[in-house]
Amino acid sequence: MEGIIDFYNPYMYDRMLINGHRNRRYREIMTSISLQEVKKSYRSGEETTHVLKGVDLEVGRGEMLMIMGPSGSGKTTFLNLLGGIDVPDSGQVLIDGEEISSYGPQQLSNYRRRQVGFIFQFYNLIPTLNALENVELSLETINKDKTANREKAMRYLEMVGLGDRWSSFPQELSGGQQQRVAIARALSKEPRLILADEPTGNLDREREQSVMELMKDIQKKLGITFFIVSHNSRLIPFMDRIFELDAGRLQEIRG
Length: 255
What we know:
Helix content is about 35%, strand content about 25%. It is of the alpha/beta class. The strands form two sheets. It has a six-stranded mixed sheet with strand order 6-7-8-3-9-10, sandwiched between helices. A hairpin with a 2-residue loop joins β9 and β10. It is globular. It starts with 9 loop residues before the first helix and ends with a strand.
């Protein structure tokens, strides 16, 4: 196990590529996400819409990436494929070397529960549960130990700066605080991957900055891979790489 933690370090990843270490073992350890010729279409009546037209992508561990593109360009479909909510018509989706695109329904359900955290624009908190209970709820399908779940939920609320607001209900929290609860909920599963769909879309600029600084800090400390879909150009400075999805094609516009 010695040195494995270094593989989560983007600097170490870059140095290995520079030094020419491109053998299979290094690629498997350091590549978090690999998409190979991924295609996805939807059919409505007689009409077929080709959403993704052969997408290829390689993502290193612990990167924060942003997908931009016009409405209807397939950004949500892209996140759904990474999150195991949907499967491609053809091509492969690999997460840490595991081909999730070949999983059956139960395997995909387990993958979503244990390995992916989701952050949404509208927080999706349950209004009748307090902050701690909202985070705990995400852990119940993974671990039946209520004491352990409560301790873990509290730990992640403290990580996002809400340890003193654990008993507050969503309506008693600001928009930025509710999004922090949603981030704690996503983190509490200790996932490989966090998918965020317009995570600051409901926030003012000050709270947007605070939430993005928090996610960037978490990315650096925990080495989690973040995929963020947004139209908001103010998020660009926080990103390691920027992609544009348009007309079914994915193009890197800043790396």
